[in-house]
Amino acid sequence: MTSPFRFTSPGPADETTGTAAAVHAQVTRDFGIEGALPFVALSAAPDLMAGAWALMRESLLSGHASRTEKELVTYGVSLANRCPFCVGAHTLLLHAGGDRELAGSLARGERPADPEHDRLLAWGQDMRGRWPFAADDAPEFVGSALAFHFINRIVSALIDEEAVSGGADPAELLDTEAGHAVVRAVRARPEPGLSLPLLGTGGPQPSWAAGTPVGAAFGALRAAAHAGAGLLDEPDATFVRESVAAWDGFAPLPLAGDGLPDRAERPGARLALLAARAPYRITAEDVKAWRVEPYTDHCLVHLVAFGAMLAVERVEAGLAAQG
Fold it and tell me: What phi and psi, each to the nearest 5 degrees, are found at residue 36?
C-alpha cells in the first residue's frame, strides 16, 4: 500500500507510546477518526502533535458556539489555503452533523444560501474583515480558524493529498461503522480542557483567548512550533521571519520572481518559507537538499511547523483592529 505521507515515515497510531498515544486516543474518542492523518503526520514531534490537537479540540469541537458555523469558517480557511484534503474533510463533517443540504451545495462549489453562513465562510477565506460573530465567541471562532491555518499547512506539506482525497459519497462513507463513530463525535460536545494535560511547555496566551483552554492550547502550540527555528542559523531564521512578516497573510506565492532562497545555498530557509506561504509547492528535491545527517523526521516536522506558525501569526496580526 502506498504511504499517504510525502517525506516522513510515521508509525501506525496503535504502535505509538507516551504523549502521541494519548493524543491518538483522544482524537479517536472526540473527533471520531482513528489514526487521523494530520495528527499522525505530526507524531514524530509529540509536543507539536499535542498542541495542534488541543487547539483544534478546544476551539472547534468544544465550547458552546455552533459546530456548523465553526465548520463553515474552517471550510473557508481551507479554501483560501488550497487544501483539498481539509476542504473534503469539512464537507464530510458538515454532512455528519446533519447539514446535508449545506454540505452538498458547498461540494458543488456554491455559496451558502443563508447570508449568515455566507458571511462566516467569507470571513474564513479572509479574516481581515469584521467578525461575523460575537466577541465573546472569539476563542472558538478565531481559534478554529487559526488551528486550520496551521493544520492546512501541515497537511499540504507532509501528506499526499491526491492519494487520500477521493470523490466518495459522504452518505456512503458515513454509513459504515467508522462513519457512525464520526457522526457520534460531531454531534457530541466534548468537555472543555481535557486536552490540556497533554501539552508540554506553555507559552503566552493570545489576547483574543486569554484565560481559556483555547488560549492555553494556542500558546503551547506556538512555543513548540517556534522551537523549529533552532534548525536554521540566525540569518536564515531572521530572513524567514521578515519575509513572512512582510507578506499580507493571504496572497499566494507567485511562481516566478518569488524571492525564494536558492535550494542549494539556503535549503532550510526555502523549506520554512514554502511551509508558510505555499506548502503544496514543497518538493522532494527541496527536502532532500536540506535533510542531511543528523536531521530526522522529527526535525523536518519541526521546520515545517515553524514556517506554518509564522503564517498563523501573520494572519493573527490582521485581527488586531477587530472585535
Answer: -60, 125
